[in-house]
Automatic annotation (TrEMBL), chain A:
The keyword Transmembrane applies. Pfam families: bPH_2. InterPro entries: YdbS-like_PH. This is PH domain-containing protein. PANTHER family: TRANSMEMBRANE PROTEIN-RELATED, UPF0699 TRANSMEMBRANE PROTEIN YDBS. It comes from Nonomuraea montanisoli. Residues 82-159 form the YdbS-like PH domain. It comes from the Bacteria. Keywords: Membrane, Transmembrane, Transmembrane helix. The keyword Ligase does not apply. The lineage of its organism: Bacteria, Bacillati, Actinomycetota, Actinomycetes, Streptosporangiales.
From TrEMBL, chain B:
The chain crosses the membrane at residues 40-63, 247-266, 294-317, 470-488, 522-547. Residues 159-226, 328-373 are annotated as: Disordered. Residues 197-226 have a biased composition (Basic and acidic residues). Residues 67-145, 554-609 form the YdbS-like PH domain. Keywords: Membrane, Transmembrane, Transmembrane helix. It comes from Nonomuraea montanisoli. This is PH domain-containing protein. It comes from the Bacteria. Residues 176-186, 331-341 have a biased composition (Low complexity).
């Protein structure tokens, strides 16, 4: 077991976690998002059991277990992501980490950033949050920093844009 | 600067090409009218009128198209106005032009014309290409050279009397040079066919048309055009050798040969009234097959292979006949370059480099300002030119059959290459046909500009992971099948059909008898055994081959990564072209101490992965490949702390 995150004795190299976490309000927002999906699914399962079956006990246990699992995941998942998802912006690079079962670290150098966007969905706005999306020339997809305080996000985007504009060329 | 038009000879091409529509239409007309008992004279008249109408229509369309299509090259931009129905005006900055593609089929070649496609980057959508269809070969060649060298636009336009003021003959792009261009054209065609020739004659021949055009135009001194090629030899890196054709059949297509032939023949036969796929022929074929299967089936298989191999060989001959890979050097250093008007002398190649290449990327001393050019095609000649600055690496591809035969192919990893064209059989990025592996490695190293390191194998944990995956993939279905068989033996299936579990189809007496006899059980056991005996060995072989493929290395200029069980790909990615890192580690990888390092780039696939590399090695590799980028985020522990910082 030589996880790069964990201490691993002699000669090890590891990626350190990025400095910052998402805004704590992001947990509430992600939970709300997860519940919007999980509550109808669990509700539908229970309703179907109630309306369309002869109420066998074994099926009742199964359905109840399913519903509880849905709700538990919706409540626990965002807390887990909050602990795992981290980000950092230095003068030279953008660095993020996410993923719970599969960890994903991404690094993009400032000189190769092409566009910087902030996005705020309607629900996200209620929580005062925003996402920052950083695109490079690669087709491998943009880097997204999720669930930042919206003022912080705007500030970060402005800073990134300023740095990016200062570097000429097409960043390929 | 004035706008230029396409050449009028396009009309002749359209007329000839429209015969491709005329022939099938006339065939149908003749068939129908014969059925109505018309006389041959009347039929001939109708067919002739139909043919005339079609040709006239196509030519009329082409006249309109030529009328609305105009293009011009300025110092900064290439502009194109086009569109018969909806007008378009597209304008592309010249520093965005990454590739120039010349393509001439037999008809266009006969008229000395070629289609020019100019690739401008972007992610492969069609808007990333400008098409000039067609230009005279000499003009296209000159344009190609100007677009891909940093020559000023007027070096090209200076050849054009229209610019110098001959508006009265403005219809023809290069009037007055007709005769000289005729001879120039044939010479360029010869060059496309590429029989053996020394470099010097090659260079002079290739310059021939342009020089003749200058001489013919005679209005202005051809400033800036001379350094475009005359003084510098073109390096021919690879040239077709016919023994390579032995690698052509080593594709899966060889086994699908007859199906392809049938598919190709279906349409013309259908038009002639021969129904290939009718119940009658199917019954006939089936009867013939089942009569003596031990004779007929091998015959069919052999015929299929023969057809496939023949097809593959013919395809190779057409695609790669006259193949040549050459490198044209860039403009010489400034002193040799300074012409009479220094204000229009181009920026040095260095200034045109994409900025922001990390400091480590200047290790390779060789100048990277040349152009690569692939020429190929026996009937349809194709030429792809690629700016070396846009080259981000090179890929060696060894699909299974080709690998077993000791062959490989080389592909470019470049920004701004479009998608493969319709009807085109080769990848646009293909630099070579299938050829011997050693030769492919030599060419790859030449394209990369350095000797590429031999990939280092990955830890044994990566092999364990692959073997475990193969075992699970094969054993899990076998176990499931065995469990089902046991369940059937214990009367599960019988009870289930009686209980009304499955649909009515399973409740018939036949099915019940089939289950009771044990036939179903035998089949399921057989399937389980087949999975164990066939799938398991194959999966294990694939796992081991996949592990043997794994490897990575770091050259002076390139990051090398190799992987793939079926198609083994060795990618050398220019370290200066890496625009970021994605490092992933799944739960299983974490337990095995492995991770996947993925270099993101603007070129090719967008990212190139080093799969299942040891944790420390992978991070050190990424840290060294692009110095300074990953280092601030790494924690080094123990005795090696501080080492390996370049």
């Amino acid at each position: 077991m030589r996880a790069p995150d964990a201490g691993d004795g002699a000669g090890g190299v590891a990626l350190r976690p990025p400095r910052h976490q998402a805004d704590p309000r992001a947990v509430a927002w992600w939970t709300a998002q997860a519940l919007i999906l999980a509550v109808p699914v669990a509700g539908a399962a229970v309703a179907a059991y109630w309306l369309f079956t002869g109420h066998p006990v074994w099926l009742g246990v199964l359905v109840a277990g399913f519903a509880v699992c849905c709700l538990a995941l919706a409540l626990a998942g965002p807390r887990a992501s909050y602990r795992v998802e981290r980000w950092e912006v230095t003068d030279d690079a953008v660095y993020t980490r996410k993923g719970w079962l599969t960890h994903t670290w991404r690094v993009a150098p400032m000189s190769r950033i092409q566009t910087v966007d902030t996005a705020r969905g309607p629900v996200q706005r209620l929580f005062g949050l925003a996402d920052v999306t950083v695109t490079t020339a690669s087709a491998a997809g943009p880097i997204t920093i999720e669930g930042l305080d919206h003022e912080l996000a705007a500030e970060l985007a402005a800073r990134l844009t300023a740095i990016t504009q200062a570097t000429p060329g097409d960043a390929t | 600067m004035s706008w230029r038009r396409l050449t009028r000879r396009s009309l002749a091409v359209s007329a000839v090409l429209s015969l491709g529509v005329v022939v099938p239409v006339d065939v149908v007309v003749v068939r129908v009218l014969r059925g109505l008992d018309w006389t041959w004279g009347a039929i001939a008249a109708v067919a002739a009128v139909g043919a005339a109408l079609i040709v006239a229509g196509v030519v009329a369309y082409d006249v309109t198209r030529l009328r609305v299509t105009r293009w011009r090259l300025t110092r900064e931009r290439l502009e194109l106005r086009s569109g018969v129905v909806s007008r378009q005006h597209r304008s592309v900055p010249r520093d965005r032009i990454r590739s120039v593609d010349l393509r001439a089929d037999l008809v266009r070649r006969a008229f000395g014309l070629t289609v020019v496609k100019i690739g401008t980057g972007g992610h492969g959508d069609e808007s990333a290409e400008l098409t000039l269809d067609p230009l005279p070969v000499a003009e296209a060649e000159a344009l190609r050279r100007v677009l891909l060298s940093d020559a000023p636009a007027d070096a090209f336009l200076a050849e054009d009397p229209v610019v110098a003021g001959a508006p009265s003959r403005g219809d023809e792009p290069v009037p007055g040079s007709e005769t000289s261009r005729g001879s120039g054209t044939s010479r360029v065609d010869e060059a496309f066919l590429g029989s053996g020739r020394s470099r010097e004659t090659e260079a002079s021949r290739r310059n021939g048309p342009a020089q003749r055009d200058e001489a013919a135009s005679g209005h202005r001194p051809a400033r800036g055009d001379e350094p475009l090629g005359a003084a510098r030899a073109v390096e021919v890196v690879a040239r077709l050798r016919w023994p390579w054709v032995r690698y052509a059949p080593l594709t899966v297509w060889s086994f699908a040969g007859a199906a392809l032939v049938l598919g190709a023949l279906y349409k013309p036969l259908d038009a002639l009234g021969v129904e290939v796929f009718s119940g009658e022929t199917a019954a006939l074929v089936w009867g013939w097959l089942t009569e003596r299967p031990w004779v007929t089936i091998p015959v069919v298989v052999a015929g299929n292979v023969v057809a496939g191999v023949t097809g593959a060989v013919l395809l190779f001959v057409e695609s790669w006949g006259g193949y040549r890979l050459e490198r044209e050097p860039g403009r010489p250093a400034a002193p040799a370059d300074a012409g009479p008007d220094t204000d229009s002398s181009p920026a040095t190649p260095h200034a045109a480099r994409p900025h922001g290449r990390p400091a480590g990327s200047h290790e390779g001393p060789a100048p990277r300002d040349g152009r690569w050019r692939v020429r190929r095609g026996l009937l349809t000649s194709r030429s792809l030119s690629l700016d070396e600055l846009r080259l981000r690496g090179v890929e060696l591809r060894e699909p299974l059959l080709l690998r077993l035969g000791g062959g490989a192919r080389v592909k470019a990893v470049a920004t701004g290459l479009g998608k493969a064209q319709e009807g085109e059989t080769e990848d646009v990025a293909a630099l070579t046909p299938p050829l011997p592996r050693a030769e492919a490695a030599r060419i790859a190293a030449r394209v990369a500009g350095e000797r590429l390191p031999e990939p280092v194998p990955h830890p044994a944990a990566a092999r364990r992971r692959r073997v475990r995956r193969a075992l699970i993939a094969a054993v899990a279905p076998a176990v499931a099948l065995a469990a089902t068989a046991t369940w059937i033996r214990n009367g599960g299936a019988e009870a289930w059909t009686r209980g009304g579990g499955p649909g009515a189809w399973a409740r018939t007496d036949d099915v019940r008898a089939w289950i009771r006899d044990g036939a179903l059980e035998a089949w399921v056991w057989g399937a389980a055994a087949a999975v164990l005996l066939l799938v398991l060995p194959l999966a294990l072989l694939a796992a081991l081959a996949g592990y043997r493929s794994l490897g990575h290395g770091l050259g002076g200029r390139h990051l090398v990564s190799r992987s793939g069980a079926v198609v083994r790909r060795t990618v050398a990615l220019d370290r200066g072209g890496i625009v970021g890192w994605t490092i992933t580690q799944s739960y299983v990888q974490r337990r095995a101490g492995l991770l996947t390092v993925s270099a993101t780039t603007a070129a090719g696939d967008g990212h190139y992965d080093v799969l299942d590399v040891g944790g420390d090695t992978g991070l050190e590799l990424a840290a060294h490949a692009v110095p300074g980028l990953l280092d601030p985020f790494l924690v080094r522990r123990g005795p090696r702390t501080g080492t390996g910082r370049g």
